[in-house]
Amino acid sequence: KVGHKSERLMQALAEKVIHQPSHHFSPQMLVGIAWAYANTAHHTRPLFHAIAKSLLDNIHKLTANEIASVAWSYASVNCNHYGLFDALAEASEGKWPQFSAQSLANLAWAYSTMKEVNPRVYEGIAKASMKCK
Fold this sequence. Notes:
With 133 residues, the chain is mostly helical. The chain has helices at 7-19, 27-39, 45-56, 64-76, 84-92, 101-113, 119-131. It is globular and about 45 Å long.
């Protein structure tokens, strides 16, 4: 852990993500950037909207834990990009057994925090939770 953050560095990376073509960053890189900015409480709406826009094109490439990470990141900064949580729900279909217990908890927290009502997500979380050890 570095212990400090450089505002100039964080802003420069945000600008790069905002202004680069969506194919410049892999979905996994975008997940990591969203998590990092949410975790450092350094966020801008344009950055999170640019990440969401790019992720929506490749949402099915995300792993179960990446889906939970995106949901957690967006809920942590209270940013609900139109259609993102619905797309995350759709991408979760068929991946429920792959979610870790922590990812299921993060996903449940994110959907409830954002007041996202999606019965398929809550049902998937409930069923997958019963199989977690």
